[in-house]
Design brief:
Length: 310
């Protein structure tokens, strides 16, 4: 029997049961369910893991609830600068974009960098030129305007501080989105997309577009998408660290992923989590925060949409 599976995340953080209204919880769960099913439908039709992760991330980018695409947070200058990346575990090809503005679906631009250029990573003006040349949909600033996100920025715009999505000292939430999938051919892929951090300074780049830090995929080991305090995830080379532990020690996917998030990232001082998958369709979703928006669905019928920790 052919097997396939997919997992997605919508960010990790201080998500404590009872802190969110029931309506809000339903809203987040249905946005996750929609994106999960969009990606799963691709796999069900015999599609590739790459198409499944791109489709799921596009759906999350189109939701205002998550800090990616439409829901991206405001930078220090009141604009939106987005980052995204995608990697194919079969070919080890990857594409990434950073510091882009006005692009409706950054993950698809990252995929075009992978497939239609000689490069892996494009940023800023060059990435925007590339996007225009490849007919990417550009939306005006109104599309990205969200009253709540604007308020978050207004509160800290005249200060030196910057925040990870809703982070308010102890109340932090990282809203980056991501997906990992394993298709019926046993190929895996990963994709991540983010608006970064509220009030981030011009030019700040997090882990999400960095292959090896926020995103990684290799059929030999695993596919990973991270969310959390990007500076620490870059220094921990987190996504690749999980793959490397599996490759060099033979430890299981869950054991390696949990060790990296709970011990290695935490030791550096980083908060967040990741989603991981391997070619057997096994899934792991560890986080060292109170919660993480996450969901998975497997062809054997197992599925869940979760927000809080145990
Ligand atoms: N990792 C992202 C960044 O640092 C933030 C997030 O996960 O929400 O840009």
């Amino acid at each position: 029997m052919k097997t396939f599976s997919i997992a997605i995340h919508g960010g990790a953080g201080t998500l404590v049961k009872g802190m969110m209204t029931a309506d809000k919880e339903v809203g987040y769960k249905s946005a996750l369910e929609y994106a999960l099913n969009e990606g799963y439908a691709i796999l069900e039709k015999g599609g590739s893991a790459m198409d499944a992760v791109e489709t799921a991330v596009r759906a999350l980018e189109d939701s205002p609830l998550f800090n990616a695409g439409k829901g991206s947070v405001f930078t220090a200058s009141g604009t939106h600068e987005m980052d995204a990346s995608i990697m194919d575990g079969k070919s080890l090809k990857a594409g990434a974009v950073s510091l882009i503005t006005g692009i409706k679906n950054p993950v698809s631009l990252a995929r075009d960098v992978m497939e239609k250029s000689e490069h892996v990573f494009m940023a800023g003006e060059g990435a925007m030129e590339f996007a225009k040349a490849h007919q990417h949909e550009l939306s005006d600033p109104d599309y990205f305007y969200d009253e709540f996100r604007h308020q978050q920025w207004v509160e800290i715009r005249d200060t030196e501080s910057f925040q990870l999505d809703h982070a308010k000292k102890k109340e932090g939430k990282f809203g980056t989105v991501g997906a990992v999938a394993c298709d019926e051919f046993g190929n895996i892929a990963a994709a991540t997309s983010t608006g970064g951090m509220t009030n981030k300074k011009f030019g700040r780049v997090g882990d999400s577009p960095m292959i090896g830090a926020g995103t990684y995929a290799n059929n030999e080991t695993c596919a990973i998408s991270c969310t959390g305090s990007g500076e620490y995830f870059i220094r921990g080379v987190v996504a690749y660290d999980v793959a490397s532990i599996i490759e060099h020690t033979g430890r299981s996917l869950d054991d390696a992923a949990t060790d990296v998030i709970m011990n290695r990232v935490a030791k550096l001082g980083g908060d967040g989590g990741l989603i991981a998958i391997n070619t057997k369709g096994e899934i792991s979703m560890p986080f060292n925060t109170e919660g993480m928006y996450r969901a998975f669905k497997k062809s054997d019928g197992e599925a869940a949409i979760l927000i809080y920790g145990a």
